[in-house]
């Protein structure tokens, strides 16, 4: 039995207009699961339903084999970390972290021990007397995390917790969250619209769209084998070309044509190639980082005009025009000049096909 189960959930913010409709979800104990998707897809609604802040109109919320659908949030022993930190500005670090324990009427000596232990866990020893206003964004987020962990929750829910931090602090906090999850073995559900966060943190990713699960899998599965067009575009398959299907050589290989130029595809997974016949119209999707720029024609390549090149340190970003399509590439070719004719190639195992 899964540790967390959502069974046939209808839930939303307006009665009779559910965002989640007959929604089902399973999370195993000790997993760090990310709910990934654009704004409005149902990620936070799912989190709030699990935590008890939204009461579903239909269905069950099961945690550790117990039906908690009717339990209020304070009876579920769940830790919550929000995007806005939600710290009390008039309380110092120690008092903020201790707040939940005091509400539970824990003895003073035990509170002091637990708070000191969790502050050490998140590297905030020595900050006990500081007010939130005197902390950096990363430090405030650590306080919020410590406050959620100190109650020893059965489950930790995190709602876009790093979105207010700058890039460097986000990297540091991702590493910190990953370390804590492995160290404590706690089950975490993490809401984000950032694919890098989801890929780097998660043991499992659930991609959501319009209240439904588009795909569930490991980070590697989501990134390398997206199951739908929506997932593919969300995880970076931004380049698209129209093509004509020629033939499926076997289960893992097919030939298509782009303006009568043959393009080979060798992938373990296509989207919708079943029952395709010669002449059917399809679309090809591929990533910028998989797109190769060359001075000469190479396998699976097409001619293009280079519009601009932006130097970005280790790599450069290129924008090309093929017919009326803009094609993007990221590579180490830093000396190419604008308005130059060249070729772009697509590795056969990096292309995803969908019927048009």
Quick synopsis:
With 356 residues, the protein is of the alpha+beta class.
Could you explain how this protein is built, in words?
The chain has about 350 residues and is α+β, with helices and mostly antiparallel strands. The chain has two domains: about 5-235, P-loop containing nucleotide triphosphate hydrolases (Rossmann fold), CATH 3.40.50.300; about 235-355, Beta Barrel (OB fold (Dihydrolipoamide Acetyltransferase, E2P)), CATH 2.40.50. It is built from eight helices and 20 strands. A hairpin with an 8-residue loop joins strand 1 (about 5-10) and strand 2. Helix 4 (about 135-150) packs parallel to helix 5. The longest helix is centred in the middle third of the chain and has 18 residues, at about 165-185. The two termini are about 40 Å apart. The model has no long low-confidence stretch (mean pLDDT about 90).
List keywords for this structure.
about 350 residues, 5-stranded antiparallel sheet, 6-stranded mixed sheet, 8 helices, about 35% strand, alpha+beta, Rossmann fold, OB fold (Dihydrolipoamide Acetyltransferase, E2P), single chain
